[in-house]
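Aim 2 progress. For glycerate dehydrogenase, the working sequence is reproduced below.
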Amino acid sequence: MAKPVSIEVWNPNGKYRVVSTKPMPGTRWINLLIEQDCRVEICTQKKTILSVEDIIALIGDKCDGVIGQLTEDWGETLFSALSRAGGKAFSNMAVGYNNVDVNAANKYGVAVGNTPGVLTETTAELAASLSLSAARRIVEADEFMRAGLYDGWLPNLFVGNLLKGQTVGVIGAGRIGSAYARMMVEGFKMNLIYYDLYQATRLEKFVTAYGQFLKANGEQPVTWKRASSMEEVLREADVISLHPILDKTTYHLVNKDSLAIMKKEAVLVNCSRGPVIDEVALVEHLKQNPMFRVGLDVFEDEPYMKPGLADLKNAVVVPHIASASKWTREGMATLAALNVLGKIKGYPVWSNPNQVEPFLNENAPPPAASPSIVNSKALGLPVSRL
Ligand SMILES: NC(=O)C1=CN([C@@H]2O[C@H](COP(=O)(O)OP(=O)(O)OC[C@H]3O[C@@H](n4cnc5c(N)ncnc54)[C@H](O)[C@@H]3O)[C@@H](O)[C@H]2O)C=CC1
Ligand SMILES: O=C(O)C(=O)CO
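Predicted structure tokens for this construct:
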């Protein structure tokens, strides 16, 4: 069995043993655990992605809860190891939990936490940045400057797409998709078309109100449309951003056939999960359609890119940094720690995981609840009345 080489220990005499598979930003999450009698062990091993064996070694013989990462494979093996060690709680430091087999967690009675809300705006801002970077060819132009190729202004130099008055398409208009839609509609006066399994009523109201405001000021009003299929969005939108969860209904949602129906000069952005796009088909499409551009934060086989992608000028690629702002990452660590702590202490589950602000206020103690437990119903956990 692989032995973790280095562990940082806080509050060695704490009653409850909580393990974090990675160092996480900030210290509030550590302090909150220590204050509640936890011994906190942080794996500081210099290996980016821990294997299942590494994590089993970290769990050891006694472990009350684990804070883990989206790169780890939390399935039957790890939940049974955690359960054998007396553990009752695991939290991803992420909102997405496609790396977690929730049925396996249910089988062992382990609560699974995630970190919604605190990363919504940060992730949407990166999606907006990628939309702009791709539409206006910012990375290509930057490389050109640094290569000393700029001889002077030219009418045809790095001509890209104007966003104003065009249509932004959102697939998955949940927390992040709706925040992104609002940014693009309000910031760039784009019309909206979206596809989701559920109606995004607040988003629709926002666009309607903004359209009325523009009209009252003598400007062209923005509009919205809820599409009846994903294909409708792909066919009609000029900029499309993907924000659904990853599950079997969204795997390869964008593939050879769906790429073929998109506009030749469309911009496609993915800040959800890599496998939502068939990346091999995307590389081929980018090669065949040089005016089609993408902005990608996530990849099908992270940390790798499919062959050919890195050579394409019409692709902007960044390493899964959409939630990487200081405030957000510290908040994610706090929510993940409080998810685990809440279960250890027998606290109820927060009633609305879309409103986690009370847990993020540094000037007040957090509510005595777990902010977001995705299998709370399956485990029959009590819900907070606060
Ligand atoms: N790149 C990054 O760093 C980050 C990626 N994410 C990803 O973004 C995802 C969304 O996060 P939130 O907006 O907070 O979640 P959310 O649950 O609020 O939104 C997801 C939306 O997708 C919709 N959806 C589910 N299946 C669908 C389908 N087949 N077709 C269309 N829509 C469908 C849901 O109805 C929901 O409205 C996460 O699950 C995660 O995978 C989240 C944060 C950062
Ligand atoms: O939270 C998530 O799901 C991420 O991908 C990282 O923030």
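The chain is about 35% helix and 15% strand. This observation will guide construct design in the next reporting period.
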